[in-house]
Amino acid sequence: MSAAHAPVVALSGGVGGAKLAHGLARTAPAGGLVVVANTGDDFEHLGLRICPDIDTLVYTLSDTADTTRGWGRADETWHFLEALERLGGPDWFRLGDRDLAMHVLRTERLRSGRLLSAVTRELATALGIDTPIVPMSDDPVRTILDTDEGLLDFQDYFVHRQCRPRVRAIEYRGARSARPSPPLAALLAGDVPCAAVLCPSNPHLSIDPILAVPDVRAWLERSTVRVVAVSPIVGGEALKGPAAKLLRELAGSSSALAIAEHYAGLLDILVIDEQDAHLAPRIEALGISVQVDDTVMRSIPDRDRLARRVLRCLA
């Protein structure tokens, strides 16, 4: 079976990755896409299991995401949070009233013994999503950052401290003992050659936690798996989030070339923005083919256009 007819497996984090995943879901053949979600951001808050990247994917693929804020649900209200603040509760992590329903129902089902992968499938189906959204693992994996302010849990660094501390190293705690979720394990064990997409998500915070789960990186390194990535760095900066900051702190520079170097050994093709076309020869010197396009997804047509370009790279 050729790569053009193989299932496409997209590894994704939150906002940037979800935009491309949305475009892929709209343009790939029916049944031809599986999205693997990062769960290294997951945490417990107010007794609830919060899965930010899964939820961003679910809301984006169901067309219920708040495109102005870039996270959470559209048409959100904040009565719960306002009441919590008046009572002196923690208000640093913003839970909207509509969003709260997702966390409450997920937590109740997990406490009843259901697996996160099964619960995610049920919630996505309830919102009309046909594309499988697969957690990387049903086991807990936690992204821990070693910073100049000490060890910080991901959400403490990302939301509470707004990415200000300088990062020295990152640990994906629990990843070595985590098992791929059952639907991901089935993909890794399958005989059908797959094509993989590394979505334009933060490489350190969104994609690397997935790669840290046993067998995922080795699967991508197989000669039968064609791998394309879209750079989340445009003109030396990230469109959203701390990807550029972390690249400068951990790799010494932030560019599409730094993305290529980070993923060296995994990629067949890197899609970079037109602003970074001058870096193509240096990326190709790493043994990675380069495709140049407008990679900024300002609208749904932009998502569809970029997704079609990625799918052509996999053909």
Can you walk me through this structure?
The chain has about 325 residues and is an alpha/beta fold. It has one domain (about 5-315): Rossmann fold, CATH 3.40.50.10680. The chain has helices spanning about 15-25, 50-60, 80-85, 95-110, 115-125, 155-160, 180-190, 205-210, 215-220, 245-250, 255-260, 280-285, 300-315; strands at about 10, 35, 45, 50, 135, 140-145, 150-155, 165-175, 195-200, 225-230, 235, 235-240, 270-275, 290-295. The strands form four sheets. Strands 5-2-1-9-10-13-14 form a seven-stranded parallel beta sheet, sandwiched between helices. Strands 7-6-8 form a three-stranded antiparallel beta sheet. A two-stranded antiparallel ribbon has the order 3-4. Helix 12 links the parallel strand 13 (about 270-275) and strand 14. Helix 1 crosses helix 13 (about 300-315). The longest helix is centred in the N-terminal third of the chain and has 15 residues, at about 95-110. It is globular, with a radius of gyration of 19 Å. The relative contact order is 0.15. The mean pLDDT is about 95.
